[in-house]
Design goal:
alpha/beta; Rossmann fold; 7-stranded parallel beta sheet; 15% strand; globular
Amino acid sequence: MSLLAGSAVVTGGGSGIGRAIAEALAAGGAPVAVVDLLPEGARETVAAIGAAGGRAALVQADVSRWEDVDRAVAAAVRELGPLGILVNAAGILDGYAPADELTPAVWERVLAINLTGSFFACRRALAEMLPRGAGRIVNVASVAGLVGSGGGPAYTASKHGVVGLTRQLAITYAAQGVTVNAICPGVIATALRANSTRILGADAPVMRGVGGDDAAMRALTPAGRRGTLAEVAAAAAYLASAEAAYVTGHTLVIDGGWTAR
């Protein structure tokens, strides 16, 4: 399997799923721009890619700000070459508080990063991909974007929005060589909870019902275990490959059978 030619931009590349995908794309030969609001994690990702023989650049940006996204993609193209791949992995949780307890500030911030940030990055990447007649966009959604849940109205709504955005863009640009797909991870061990609290700051709600104990999570998943970051990254790398040219508008679920119950 070979990645589509060109550089890659990975938002949220400083930790968790974003880092795993950035490292997988770099291992596949793509120079990677690691975009993150929290620079310390992004530095670690860039260092790990470099240590493994890959090429990467750090770009600090808040994906909820159009000016930051515009600057980040421009920097990636300037430093690493024409853009071939975009992965939108930046995202935060809302603490899984019910709607009657969720503050407007948290709602707005979660939607701004998870959904608006994905749109901004897609819009900016398309400006690079369409003239070339080729591109791969992979949006990181979630199983929470496919089904309802007991809490987390902002997170759930944002991920449903990412799935809808993915399908709309796929239809619009399929004939122009740009594929747009989403991955929907299930229960995966990441640092999303801690990073969400840092980004939300004083507005951060008490994180509850997120992750649970390992035995409880295994019981909910037919596969009987959590998924790994490597498994999620492999799915994203396939959708970013040259071989996936006829795959677009697809939502690839990586959940050990959780949504099949």
